[in-house]
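== Sequence entry ==
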Amino acid sequence: MNIDAWVWWLIGAAGLGIGLVITAMPELGMLAVGAVAAAVVGGLGGDAVMQVVVFAVVSVALTAVVRPIAARHRSQRPQLATGVEALKGKQAVVLERVDGSGGRIKLAGEVWSARALNSELAYEVGQEVDVVDIEGATAIVL
């Protein structure tokens, strides 16, 4: 039994696709697409050298284009901040004098312990402050 080359390319693409699902390595998906492109060339009558060249060019091109896009998406912060991350940048009202050693603020409807970012500054009752960071259960304000 003589199997055409394009069938072998499709078998290889399927194997790479299975590897992609099992390992979650996107590079295997790019190689699978290259194998499908080589199968198309083989099915249209291209010789073995042309099939290998198409496989290599498509795989390398996809890797060169897709990997930087994926890396950029991976490094971006989530659009929706939740938890303490959502409190950073919010305004709060001073309930008890806040200085470098502590105090209390009302932040997002809750009472929080707070301390001033600059230990030389103090914020008085009723004053609005900006939350710049959260350290444990203490808001750092400015």
The mean pLDDT is 91. The first helix runs from residue 5 to 23. The helical segments are 5-23, 26-43, 48-75, 84-87. The CA atoms of residues 59 and 65 lie 10 Å apart.
